[in-house]
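Quick question, first post here. What does this chain look like in 3D?
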Amino acid sequence: MKVCAVGLGEIGLSTATYILGRGFETWGYDISEASTNEAKAKGIKATTDWKQIPHEKIGAYVVCVTTGLDSSSKPDLSPVFEVCSKIAATNNMPLIAIESTLQVGTCRNIYDDIFGKSAHLVHVPHRYWRDDPIKHGVRQVRVLGGIDNNSIDRGMSFYRRLSIPTHPVSSIEIAEMSKIVENSHRFLQIAFAEELKMVCDQKNIDMNELRQACNTKWNVEILEPKEGILRHCLPKDVRYLIDYSKNNRILKSAVLADEKYREYLYKKLKRADP
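> Answer (accepted):
Ran it through. Tokens below.
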């Protein structure tokens, strides 16, 4: 089987490199020449020219393009729609595995509107963590949801050949929601620790000692507050979940708590370094 990884950023490049290491002929596509050059250096047949890819021979497309937020903090999924439109135009019937983070309902819209309800489509959201790419890299348990049972079977077979364990779920919407729920849960944990840190500082209580005391209980794990929630995934994904439902009071409060904490750190830094 020939595999094409679409999107060669940090996650896509790691994914393509892993697939190549499993013995597959691996193609890569990205609009960035710098990204394709980096992929070529690792032995991947990468290109910025979609027409150079032998689409008639590709057995699986793994979509790893970055999703984000628009100017109003709403989900921006246009990169995924653009890529799937390119795949649909090839008139091929491969497996399409979307690993990019999505808003709930995106895969079904793509299946209906872009593939005309005729595609083998699965969503297998990545869980890649840059701080530990060995233990928490490409090869770890993944949630897998499919548009239908045939897609699920093909998806599980493909990931089994990659030696990536999967946890199949009954609907593709559960797979979509699982990723944004995981990261929103983490956001809530961090935001709580940040707010607790501000309380402790205000009341002259040692936060570290308090954490150690509380964490001796078997079902408590208070995190260590650091510089704020600054990376790409957590701030984005919590807003995806906020956008998905009006039942989002706790999530909105967590976003506000993180904003206040970062303001607090900034003011504290200014006082220390006038």
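The longest helix spans residues 172-203.
The two ends are 61 Å apart (CA to CA).
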